[in-house]
Amino acid sequence: MHFMRGTLPRNYHSGAWNMNKLRLNRSGPYLVMVPGVILLLLFSIYPFLFLLKISFQKYSPIGKTQPYVGFDNYITLFQDHNFWNAIKVTAVFVVSTVSLEFIIGLALAVILNQLRFGERLFQSLILIPIAMAPTVVGLMFRFMMNDQYGVLNYFSELFGFGRNAWLSNPDKALTAIIITDVWQWTPFMMIILLAGLKGISDEPYEAASIDGASAWQTFWYVTIPQLSKIIYIALLLRTIDAFRIYDTIYMMTKGGPVNVTSTLSWIVYDKGFKFLEFGYGAAICVVMLIVVVGLLTLLLKKFDVFEVEPRR
User: Fold this and answer.
1) Phi, psi dihedrals of residue 50, rounded to the nearest 5°
2) Does the pLDDT value for residue 40 go beyond 80?
3) By the 8 A CB rule, do 234 and 102 touch?
4) pLDDT band, very low/low/confident/very high, at 14 (cuts 50, 70, 90)
5) Which of 168, 182, 213, 240 sits most deeply, having the most CB atoms within 10 A of its CB?
6) What pLDDT score was predicted for residue 38?
């Protein structure tokens, strides 16, 4: 009778509260993700879809109409010798820089991991290059490598090697870009590898010492296997970033001389913004994305970088 008169059972409010709390707990993670999803749609997915769309158009910001041309941009792209030259230059640059940065970064990480004092000071000094903007680094090395008053030529003459036209010589321009990139981004590789070295426990080293392993055997058969996944992650991150190099080339060589430093990112700028061929530039970006994603997918599949180890 009390219920018929509008009086609710005692446990009704607590039950409703618990149901609302349960619904909130279930939807909570999705509510937290909403701002990130919105930002992803605005700044990643929509620009990519727009890029894909204009790659099939003869798109120009000053044109009244933007006609669809189908795969013409892609056909022209694969017939362009500048595109194939850019692929070759990009491949040489990426392989050279990432390899050198890994070797030097690993050596520095091992040395810093062995230091007993002054480690923080040396880390701070070594990390200075990555705190600088690539445009600043490019301009600095442009002055340093100047064939008339550059400091590198001063030391080169001092040691009897003569002057070098670093940036105007087709045989040395790409080497100059590689040296600049290695100087700036080796500390990035070093800090990742050093963090990995710090996470290795002492037990494997103690076991190797008991077995009479030499320093080189310990490094090759203990340190490298323990560090393998960190190494793969560091290589992947630097490979992705190396493909996008633009700032340094713009400040130092502007793609020259005779296109020896013209990478994929550079010809995107050259075609898209200099000659306002946005559709053609978009097609280059799509091909570049496919190449990078395909390469990284193969590497991730081969090395199982993010494989979760089963619980024991």
Assistant:
1) -65, -40
2) no
3) yes
4) low
5) 182
6) 84
Rounded CA-CA distance 117/72 in Å is 62
| Structure tokens that stand for 133 in this block | 């903007």
Task: Quote the tokens at residue 15.
Answer: 């039950």
> Residue 22: CA atoms inside 13 Å, Cβ hemisphere, count?
6
Q: Is 161 helix (H, G, I), strand (E, B) or coil?
A: coil
Spatial CB neighbours of 158, under 8 Å, sequence gap ≥ 6: none
Among positive and negative, which fits the CA dihedral 79, 82, 85, 91? negative
Q: Which residues of 187-225 are buried (b: 16+ CB within 10 A; e: fewer)?
A: bbbbbbbbebbeebeeeeeeebeeeebeeeebeeebbee
- Find out whether the peptide bond into 257 is cis, omega within 30 degrees of 0: yes
Strand partners, 57: 68
Backbone angles phi, psi at 193, to 5 degrees: -70, -35
The full set of domains in the chain, from first to last, is 80-303 (1.10.3720.10)
Better-predicted residue by pLDDT, 7 or 101 = 101
For residue 101, what pLDDT is reported? 96
Considering only CA atoms, which of 193, 284, 200 is closest in space to residue 237? 193
Please tell me whether the overall predicted TM-score, pTM, comes out greater than 0.90 for this model. no
φ, ψ at 70 (rounded to 5°):
65, -130
pLDDT of residue 251: 93
Mean residue pLDDT across the chain: 84
Distances (CA, A) of 59 to 20, 74, 75, 81, 268: 52, 14, 16, 22, 14
